[in-house]
Each structure stands twice: as C-alpha cells, then as structure tokens.
Design brief:
By secondary structure, the protein is mostly helical. The chain contains five helices and two strands, in the order ββααααα. The chain has a single domain, classed as Tetratricopeptide repeat domain (Serine Threonine Protein Phosphatase 5, Tetratricopeptide repeat). The chain has a two-stranded antiparallel sheet. The protein is globular, with a radius of gyration of 12 Å. It starts with a strand and ends with a helix.
C-alpha cells in the first residue's frame, strides 16, 4: 500500500514513519526552518528505498553547501526512482537539474 504526503501526492513508500519524517522535512524546508536535513535523514533510515526521501535529502544538503553529499543523495534517488511513476521521475529530475548547475 502506497501512502500520500500532506499535500495528497502519492509516495513510493509504504512506511508510515518514512512518510511522516518526509512530511516534517518538507514543512521545515519550505518554512526555511532548521532540521530538514535531520528529518530527511530519518526518512531514508526508515525506508532506504524511498527515492523522494533521497531527493529531498539532496536538496537539503545543497542548501547547506554540502555538494558532494547532495550529489550522492540525488544519484541514490535516481537509481531508486520508479520508472512507472511519472510524478516521482519528474520531481527527481528537477532536483538533478538543479544540482547539476
């Protein structure tokens, strides 16, 4: 069973804890608040196969100026992305473009 985020978007995780950490991280990141990186780290610890969790972590690392970590996280997201999920693919591709300069 797939879960949805706070905005109603279907997520490629069935792990409720990963979803909750992801949602929390998104709210922190969008609110320009501290703790997004920690929330996204917790997210991918709960579900290491959750591609959007890795993409969000990459974006948080980028905002901290941690580019090698961001590149590693986005590469992980790309390797895990579900080819049948166009929304996930486009989300990850947008972050990959952003991180590539």
């Amino acid at each position: 069973m797939m879960l949805s985020d706070h905005y109603g978007n279907t997520l490629s995780t069935a792990n409720a804890a990963a979803r909750d950490h992801y949602d929390h991280g998104v709210h922190l990141f969008l609110g320009a608040d501290y703790g997004a990186t920690e929330a996204f780290n917790a997210c991918v610890e709960c579900d290491p196969a959750f591609a959007l969790g890795h993409a969000a972590l990459a974006r948080a690392f980028m905002m901290e100026g941690r580019m090698p970590a961001a590149q590693q996280a986005i590469a992980q997201a790309q390797s895990l992305a579900d080819p049948a999920n166009a929304q996930e693919q486009s989300h990850i591709a947008a972050f990959a473009y952003l991180l590539s300069g």
